[in-house]
Amino acid sequence: MTQTEHPAVELSGLTKRFGGVTAVSDLDLTVRPGELISILGASGSGKTTLLRLVAGFETPTTGSIRLHGREVASLSPAEREIGMVFQNYALFPHLSVRRNIEYGLRMRGWDRQRRAERVTELLARMRLEKLGDRLPRQLSGGQQQRVAIARALAYSPRLVLMDEPLGALDKALKENLLAEIRRVHREFGTTILYVTHDREEAMSLSDRVAIMRDTRLVCCTPVRELYLDPPNGYVASFFSQANVIPLGGEPAALVGHGPTGAEVALGGRKHTFPSPARAGSPGAGDPGLALAIRPGQVRAAAADGDLPLAGTVSDLVFLGDTVHLRVTVPGLATPVSALTPADSARGMAVGDEVTLGLPPEHLRLLPEHP
């Protein structure tokens, strides 16, 4: 973004309440032109309300919404010049593919020749050339979604909002359409806000991922950084699917910290980690801190140098080359997951006592909550 170029989206202090219920709380977010940002969160976190506020379907209780430098909080959806793609496609059932794509252009007063040229271009770019005269009911789900995307892009909006657009599709079709959305984003250079609850969708599409929790924006971070260097235990668990082990006494405790870092005791062994921004008092333990490690980094059996974690196998799923273990550990509210090579778990069964290995180089000491 150049010094003279406005952000595509600039949200400041955005709050939405429905009576006594808060749906979005004091949210700040800046989106650069041409970015694709996924908004990821559990059900009820506020992500769809956020999209509806940007689209103009809801009015903020407080706060500012600026699109390309213009305050739009009081403008109608039509005045905001935004393309929308919905989960249920929202195609006109009585109109052909061609006329569905053309509809917004007709409403904006484009002449017939210009409309025809634009629709022909979009049919080609979305690989729908042979389907222009079909009705929506004559199309597959993936074809209907491509029509919905073409319609959203028809008048070249600078911002497109997508609300769970692939939520109802099967895995193979979803993968094909994710590739299609990536291609469209590259070719058109359109700014996209993409709401999803699917972590893999967000990872495969996004320049950055905005994570919402309980109506608040937790972070908005590039995908690779978010996965490899999560800011706290909640993000590590939600986005990286990491195991999060609070330092509350058993089985893990913070025993001290100083200039060299924070010393943690786990399974009868101690290790010093770089101190996070927030650390507890020496010897007191700190329920605000946690260790995080991804399942693929946990060993099915502790090796020399690992921090050991003893427990009972509560679930075992054979996945071919790998086995997914879930191990119940005394003192932890949730089982520890390990995704380990099948050979290393040979002979294991539910109910077995095991000692997992947590390599210190893969453990991260983080604030437990945002």
Structure characterization notes:
The structure is a single chain. The chain is α+β, with helices and mostly antiparallel strands and 370 residues long. The chain folds into 2 domains: 9-228, P-loop containing nucleotide triphosphate hydrolases (Rossmann fold, 3-Layer(aba) Sandwich), CATH 3.40.50.300; 233-367, RNA polymerase II/Efflux pump adaptor protein, barrel-sandwich hybrid domain (OB fold (Dihydrolipoamide Acetyltransferase, E2P)). It is built from 8 helices and 20 strands. The strands form 5 sheets. The protein has a 6-stranded mixed sheet with strand order 6-7-8-3-9-10, with helices on both faces. The protein has a 4-stranded antiparallel sheet with strand order 2-1-4-5, covered by helices on one side. A 4-stranded antiparallel sheet has the order 18-17-16-19, with no helix packed on it. A hairpin with a 3-residue loop joins strand 16 and strand 17. Helix 2 (97-107) packs across helix 3, helix 2 (97-107) runs parallel beside helix 4 and helix 4 (141-153) runs parallel beside helix 5. It is elongated, with a radius of gyration of 25 Å. The protein starts with 8 loop residues before the first strand and ends with a strand. The model is unreliable at 278-287 (pLDDT under 50).
Which helices and strands, and how do they pair?
Blueprint: E1 9-18, E2 21-31, E3 36-41, H1 47-55, E4 62-67, E5 70-71, E6 82-85, H2 97-107, H3 112-125, H4 141-153, E7 159-163, H5 171-188, E8 191-196, H6 199-205, E9 208-213, E10 216-222, H7 223-228, H8 233-240, E11 243-247, E12 252-258, E13 261-266, E14 269-273, E15 286-293, E16 307-318, E17 322-328, E18 336-341, E19 353-358, E20 364-367
Parallel strand pairs: 3-8, 3-9, 6-7, 7-8
Antiparallel strand pairs: 1-2, 1-4, 4-5, 9-10, 11-15, 12-13, 13-14, 15-20, 16-17, 16-19, 17-18
